[in-house]
Specification:
The chain is α+β, with helices and mostly antiparallel strands. It has 17 helices and 23 strands. 26% of the residues lie in helices and 20% in strands. The strands form 6 sheets. Strands 1, 13, 14, 18, 19, 20 and 21 form a 7-stranded mixed beta sheet that branches. A 5-stranded mixed beta sheet has the order 9-10-11-2-12.
């Protein structure tokens, strides 16, 4: 059986991956970067794609329900209520939505914001009655075009899980708490841009901005509102809220065991009803189990210990297809896999080394190793966005050119084949999140490919919280990750000077300026121009190598209905209230 005979979704055995890695050989031909015919052809094959937002989403959704085992699951048959047990590949370190980027799924079922993105990545009202816009008067721009005011009208009758009414005072408190310098937040995006908040009555919130903030929907009030009556005057860093939060969502936390699981139960006083008048939510409970090792995760899916996995590893999809009562559906994701550099290492701060690494990586091998599901990508702006720039230049896979660049930069191979310069060997600790099979496969591919250009990368993998701490604190040389954005991305978080997710010690004033332009205008044409600027700068300066655009493979019970994949960082659990079983 040949490697080429495998179809998308097939799990590649060890022999196939070994053969793929064996194909990583120095290219023949010109040593000048960009002159190799083979290199240019590969650039065309890998990098030439142009998708409109609609076409890309349709393409991603085309595979929905294509990999399905349509057998009834007896425990769910023709019954509402029930418990859904979800397997997560990450550890939840806190239940405070502003303290972590590793909460996501459980947060969305418990804590609500004023608005949220739906399955088409369009914002819809949640605790607000409508999404503010210039057209409906919710957004008013000042005459000089430098500031704006946003008004939210809140829903009547919403209660916190303890029965206390939800009001505009809670929204104002959330802003005050997040912007407090004493609060250690994963991100304070959207808080410093707010000059002040007026609450003329219990159901009206007027937010006065000191600038134009087109990404307002992706920041502060979307992640979740916190209860003033419980948290005012407390230390939010150590509050019991961080383990047993009180929210307004369809489910409330019954028990949180750090590193093991979060058990949520139905909120019987939830404010929302179904279109047919049914009181929501339908399910009795959702349990989120933390299982960082994907082999264990799939084993528990087979045994029935979990019955839903929202991040099924590409390389293990074939194992899931035969599980009785479980189906796999594909969903779009505003997510990409990437390799990042720590600029504290002198050699990695050298653009020549970063460019050589970029030319030394063949995305096609990574895609094949991951079952053919992800797609090659040019930049961190995924193609579904209107401001994606297809003309962004990308360095093609070209081992000969990579070696020539390192030669010219003075990096000389030693007796073991590893290059060095000024006493520093090009030998790096390479981190991925341990237990994530797809990322570990990509790591194996990259380690083998970098060896061909005289660079040594050694796996130094960490699980859960340890990986997260290293990611944000720069505890790595090379790190592999997968970011996912909101429907209105805030890119400066990743590579902006002092950005919340910038653990790379990277700073580029030109990039800062381009991203500031992008994030400070409401004009779509101006945003597109600014986006093209920062995409070009990222492609030239290479603080990161964007490799592939992800799709979500979601393993769920066939009997679970009303489930709609959500492509954004608000996760698939935004609308759990409507899920039911039959």
């Amino acid at each position: 059986m040949s490697i080429e005979s495998f179809e998308q979704g097939d799990e590649l055995p060890v022999w196939a991956i070994t053969r793929l890695l064996a194909r990583v050989e120095p290219q023949t031909g010109s040593s000048r970067r960009g002159n190799s015919r083979k290199g240019n052809r590969q650039k065309d094959e890998i990098m030439t794609f142009k998708l409109t937002r609609r076409a890309a989403l349709q393409g991603m959704l085309a595979g929905t329900a294509a990999l399905t085992t349509m057998r009834a699951l007896p425990a769910w048959a023709q019954a509402k209520g029930g418990t859904l047990t979800v397997g997560l590949t990450y550890e939840i370190d806190t239940m405070n939505p502003y303290s972590t980027g590793f909460l996501g799924d459980a947060q969305a079922a418990v804590i609500e914001g004023l608005i949220a993105p739906d399955g088409e990545a369009k914002y819809v009202p949640v605790l607000a009655t409508e999404v503010p816009a210039i057209e409906n008067g919710g957004i008013v721009v000042s005459d000089d075009g430098k500031t704006m005011q946003i008004t939210y009208k809140l829903r009547e009758g919403v209660k916190w899980h303890d029965g206390t009414p939800f009001t505009s005072a809670d929204v104002k408190y959330t802003w005050e708490a997040v912007k407090d310098p004493a609060f250690i937040a994963e991100s304070k995006d959207g808080s410093s841009e707010v000059e002040g908040i007026d609450t003329p009555d219990e159901l009206t919130v007027i937010v006065n901005y000191n600038t134009i903030l087109p990404t307002f929907a992706a920041t502060l009030f979307t992640f979740g509102i916190m209860p003033k009556h419980l948290l005012e005057g407390t230390d939010l860093n150590t509050s019991t809220y961080n383990e047993t939060p009180v929210g307004t969502g369809p489910f409330k936390v019954n028990e949180f065991v750090r590193g093991q699981y979060v058990e949520t139960v139905r909120n019987d006083d939830y404010w929302k009803t179904a279109e047919n008048g049914d009181k929501l939510p339908y399910l009795d409970s959702i349990i989120f189990k933390m299982i960082p090792d994907t082999n264990t995760l799939i084993t528990q899916l087979k045994s029935g210990e979990v019955n839903m996995v929202v991040s099924t590893p590409y390389s293990q999809a074939s194992q899931v297809q035969g599980i009785e009562g479980i189906e796999i559906i594909q969903g779009p994701q505003l997510s990409w896999q990437h390799l990042d550099f720590n600029f504290k290492r002198p050699s990695l701060a050298d653009l020549n080394v970063r460019k050589a690494i970029a030319m030394g990586i063949d995305r096609n091998v990574i895609i094949k190793a991951q079952g053919g599901f992800p797609k090659a990508i040019k930049s961190p702006v995924v193609p579904v966005f209107d401001f994606y720039d297809d003309s962004t230049p990308v360095l093609a896979f070209d081992v000969a050119a990579a070696n020539a660049m390192l030669d010219e930069a003075g990096y000389v191979a030693g007796g073991d084949g590893i290059r060095e310069k000024d006493g520093e060997r090009l030998s790096y600790a390479f981190m991925v999140q341990a237990g994530r099979a797809d990322d570990e496969l990509a790591q194996q591919v990259i380690i083998a490919q970098l060896k061909a250009i005289g660079i040594e990368a050694t796996a130094n993998n960490q699980t859960g919280v340890a990986y997260r701490e290293a990611r944000y604190n720069g505890g790595y040389d090379l790190i592999y990750g997968r970011w996912i954005t909101s429907a209105n991305p805030v890119y400066h978080d990743f590579w902006g000077t002092g950005g919340a997710n910038n653990g790379q010690s990277y700073s580029n004033p030109d990039l800062d300026a381009a991203m500031a332009e992008f994030e400070s205008t409401l004009d779509p044409a101006e945003r597109k121009v600014a986006a093209s600027k920062f995409q070009a700068i990222l492609a030239e300066d290479l603080p990161t190598i964007s490799l592939v655009n992800n799709v979500a493979l979601i393993a769920k019970p066939v009997a679970l209905k009303n489930f709609i994949p959500n492509p954004t960082n608000m996760t698939n659990f935004v609308d759990t209230a409507a899920w039911y079983v039959e």
